[in-house]
Structures are given as structure tokens and as C-alpha cells.
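Lab channel / #folding
Pinned by the channel admin:
"Please post every new chain as: sequence first, then the C-alpha cells as a reply. Keep commentary short and put observations after the output so the thread stays searchable."

First post following the new format, from NK:
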Amino acid sequence: MTEAPSPSWHEEIDARGILWLTFDRADATVNTLGSAVLEELEGIAGRLARQPPRGLVLRSGKASGFVLGADVKEFTTLRSVAEARALVQRGQRTLDALERLPCPTVALISGAALGGGLELALACRYRVALDDERLTLGLPEVLLGIHPGFGGTVRAVRTLGAPAALDLMLTGRNLRGKRTLDAGLVDRLCTTLTECEQAAREIIEHDPGARRPPWHLRLLSWAPLRPILRRQVTTAVARRVRPGHYPAPFAIIALWAAHGGKGAAAYAAEAESIAQLAATPTAHNLIRVFMLQDRLKAQGRGGTSVPGRVHVIGAGVMGADIAALCALRGLEVTLQDREQRFIDAALARLAEFFERRIRDPGKRAAARARRRGDRNGSGGSAADVLIEAIVEDADAKRALYAELETRMKPDAVLATNTSSIRLEELASALRMPQRLVGLHFFNPVSQMPLVEVIHTSTSSAEAIAAATALARKLDKLPLACRSSPGFLVNRVLLPYMQEAMYAAADGFSFDEIDAAATDYGMPVGPVELSDMVGLDVCRHVGGIVGVALGRALPDTAELDQRIAAGKLGRKSGEGFYRWEKGKALRGSDSRQPVPGVNRRPDARARADLEDRLLLALANECVAVLREGLVESADMIDAGMIFGAGYAPFRGGPLQAARQRGPAICEQRLRELAERYGPRFTPDAGWATVR
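Reply from TO:
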């Protein structure tokens, strides 16, 4: 047995002459491919090229997975396109040296192989994977505003064929389980590490030749056929994103169209393309968002035990979905409501959720066994955390808390899912208000990643830590926020959505208003968002927050009429828009011209519309920052991206303001205030946005 003098790569030669090369990055909990790591591997590959073993098996020494990609932090230090080009060329050179080794090479994958990690595996002749719930393969670089840069745009096409490779790179989606084998990413799936090791030995012994996609898929990369597929793929991508917002997908298509995933020129073009992309504001902002996400994920670490039993009060959509997520993540859950019919409906909803999310029948049955209807609320006395998800009414919540507190364990935490009410108003019913925190989930619970963890000056550190640990157990991103009307996300969205109503009163159509927001990069416009939330909910929450903050509200007469007519938005089939199959029908604005109202806004009004919406939102973010409701500007940006879908490529509202120029934003707000009213008066905190 020999071991190379390397801090990250460890070598062992077995009795058959096979070299087992274990990647265990020094001083890190996960494996990532940084410059130093690549330099070490390049040196090892050069030595093995001169003295090749019988075969090479490349594996991970980390319990966290195989390789979680390139070291993203290095991209934040790049000062020029030339530096970016040099970085990716080093990666290309290293993986090319690995691929050219004169012996069979096998990547033994356990856990995740993402981005540069999968590129590393693709540089090996064969891939064997451990088929467990952690197996995750993908090329998600597009989500960072770039694309694979260590030869992945070439090797993925060569291994999978153009359609599957392009889909993997353009969507950033991951493959799991048997799908990795069906796609051709791996050659063998095994159920234990011992079987994986044996399979690697067998493959090296027989060396059957690298797997190739079927001939008809290879044919699609033939130069005469590439333009046809290019048009189809470009059209599909353009339906989802715009080149000016997200250039990386279109760069991926252009690389394949020019080179078909073959030849030295394809590698050179890949390096140049990613170097140019890495210098764009989109890439800078998306990499920043990725790192903000990591900061949120780090919340809750530090030894706090995760609650094991959860009692949910309120079996409506939110309560049922919270209970489902708890049971899915291994927690014991009881679900309480005032009538059994509500509980029965919620349990049916849970069963449907488990059918969609859990493939294994045994694991599905285990999840079902972890949830129980609890009409009398007996589960509350054994719960570590009680989550209240009833109607948004302070009196009703206080009455419930007074009853719950008599049955709670002394160390149990009471968490409210209120979306707008200050916790101080709710704590007055409690003998031990320090146990009350907020856990504000967003709808749909299973899809929205953020949870606001709300605290007051009296909330105990233990209660906050338990709520944060629970959020992480549920695989959510916990954002600490001080109690205030609407907290962060709903407070900031309120002026944005209300400004849409002001604009509608000025004669803009709902389509025009929403188009101004989506042209900026928002996933949906404020009018459609109101329909998605529910007009009754918007009216109720807007009233609570607006009154609490002393804000003037737009005329709600039309909104009230729609609500009275049962037009509540998506959930009723009609709100501001008509809805079919969960989608808003464009052009379904049912408003009639109102005498005396200008129905044709002039050119200046149209030029102002985007700023009216987005600067109203940014101005409220500045107010939140000034009041210290959230830790920092970075966390405000993270909250708005992961809780409201704010355009990620812009990096968040405050990042966008910094890039535009805070002084310019302030001046525009003053101009808008002169034209449209004092609601646009710049907040006093703009001086701190630098």
C-alpha cells in the first residue's frame, strides 16, 4: 500500500493492481473541485500516465457525497475574463488527463455528483453508483448563470446524446435512482458499497468499452440536423427565460449547434463561453444567491436537538400541508381541528401528497403511520412543537393559546403560522410568552423554500433554536425576522401589489401591469399574484398590515365587489383574471371603462410603470433594513428571492438597487412622489444602501 503526499487525494493499490483513488478534501465537510485540488489530481494523472495501474477507481471519502461541484467561492474572486478562462482551462486540462489514462477508469459514485462532480465522473470511462435515496446526478451550472466548463458540454452529449444532455444542462434538474441508469449516466447501479466495489473490479477486469447512446441519438448531432433541433430547443427555452435575463441556456445551445459536442474546438469554445458568462451581472448575482442559500441552510446548526413530535392545529390547506411535510421528514404528527370532516379531508390530502412524493410502498406506509387525526387535541400534550394554522384572527388565536398552554409540556414550543399579526398581540394570552415564536410558511408549502422564523424581544433563545431546527428538518430555509406587521415578505409585497391597483385605477390593463413586472424578471406580475394568493386573503392581510403601519390604502371598492361576488382568484376560477387548469387567461380583464378615468395612459405614465411597481417594493425593503427587522440587506434579498420569487438574476431588491445606484433610485422615487403621491417618498434608510 502506498499513499501519495496529497492533502485531498489518497491512493491505495490492491492485490489485483487496481488503484483506489479516494477524494477527501482536507479541512472540508464536502468535496468540491478547487484549483488546488485540480492541481493535485493533474499531477497524479500525469504520474499514472507514465506508470499506469491495472485500473483506477475514483471514489469519495466524504459521507456527504461524491463531489458537489466546482468550488463556487473561487468564481467570486475572479477579476477578469482572462482569470475565468484560466480557471476553467485548468479544470479541462485535468479532466482531459484523467480521460486519456491508458487504463480502465471507474467513478464509484455515492451520494451527489453535481456540476463539476459529474463532469469528473464523465471523464472516467465507466460509472458505478450506489442506488440509495442520496444518489443525485446533475449539471446545475445554468442555475448559477454559467454552464459546465470542465468539458461537460462535450462529454455529456457524447455520453447521453444531444436531447438528454441538453435537457440536463438547460434545466439544471437532477436525476435520481434508476433514472440515472436509464439515461446512460451510470453503467451499473448497486445496493451496497461492497457491491459497488465488486462491480468496479469486474468492469476493470473485462473493460467492455465506454457506453454510447443509440445511433439515432448520435445522428442528431450530425451537422445537417443540428439546426432543426436547435430551433426546437431554443423555442422551448425562450418560453421560460429571456436571453437578456439568463444568457447561459442560449450559450449552451449555441455551443452544441456550433460543434455537436465533438472535437478540440468544442472544448476551447466551452472555456471561452463560460469565461464570458462568468463576467456577467447575471452570473455574479446567481452565484451570490447560491451563497445566500448556503447561509440560510447553515441556520440551525450547533447542537440544538430537532423536535420529534409536532402537533398541528388547523386542518385547512396550510395546516394539512405542514403536517404532510412533517410526516414526510420523519416526524410524528397529530392534526387537530374543530370538526372531524376537516381532519378527514386533510388526511386525504396527506395521502395524495405521499402518493406523489414517495415511490417506495414501505416508506409511504411508514409516512402514513406517522400522522394521525386528533379531534380532541390530545397530541398537544406530548408534542415538542405545536403549530397553530387557524384563521387569521387575533382573538381566535389568543383564545386557542389560552387553552393549549394548559396542556403543553413545560419545554414545548408554540409556533404560529400567522402571516401578518404581530406576535406581541398574540402573546398576551400566555403565561409563558417566551415560548411563542412564528413559523410562517408560504403557499404551496411543499414548493416554497423559505420559512420566516419570527421572534419578539421576549422569545427565548431555546424556542427560536427549536423552530429553526424544525425548519431545517423540513428542508426549508429559515430566515430570522423580528415581529412586525407582515414580517418581511408580506410587508414588502404589500406596496408592490397595492401599486398595481393604483395603476389599474390610472387606466392600465391588468395584462399591462403584469407585463411590466415580468419584463423586469418577476415570475408573475402583482395582479396574477393577488389572484394566486386569493383576493379575500389579500384584502384581509393588506388591511391588517396597512392599518398597523399607518399606510394609506388604494380604493378597495372594486376588490370588495369581486370578493362579494365570490370571485376570489385562482381558487374560485375567477378573480382579476379568469383561470383554467390553474393558469390565468391573458386578456380576461373584465373591467368596464369608468367615465372620467383616463383609459389610455400616456407615454410618460407607461415609462414610469415598472419603477412604480419595483421601486415601491425596494423602498419598503429599505424601511425593513432601517428598522432592523432582518439581520442584513443580504438576508432581506434572500427572503424576497426564496419567499416571493423576486427575480434571482437581479440578486434581490437591494442588490438591484445597489447595481442601479441608490442615489438614482432615491431620485426616481422623488419624481414618482411628485407625479403620483407621497406613497413614493424615499425612506430615510436609503443612505445605508451602499
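NK: Residues 603-627 form the longest helix (25 residues).
TO: also worth noting, The radius of gyration is 28 Å.
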